[in-house]
Amino acid sequence: MKFSLDFTTDYGQFYLNEKDDEGDTESESFWSNEAFNDKLAVEKGILGISIENSDGIVKCELEFLDSKSLISDFSDFDHVVEASLEIKTGFVQINDCPLTTLILEEKIETGNYRVRVYYGNLESAYSEAPKDYYRIEMWKDVFSDRHVLKRFENKF
User: Residue 153: what pLDDT?
Assistant: First the structure.
């Protein structure tokens, strides 16, 4: 399953979460310095995905995979990070920030998922016509910590 999403958000982030998640997005550990640098905040049942442009425009693609992503060449992307998300309710959501307006809700199998976020065209985010985009892939996998596969070094 693949979804293309266009929406707006505030505070430079949006959420990928389990329905009725238990995570505290206001905890000190959610947007820690490490999470901010990694562009991905992790809390039980929720991931905070950082966006680069200040207009809050999100162009995003979400794809559910049957197995681990086959993408190993990250040259088309500026930043790539992944983390795990446990889905206990059978529903995953994308919500904006801070209103948590529901952008997408999809029924999926319960279990642990690996979530990989690809960030593209990040330098354009500082122009008058930002073209940054975000690709998210999810697949069932064992639970493991956040890991940056390619780091964007902001030149601004």
Answer: 81
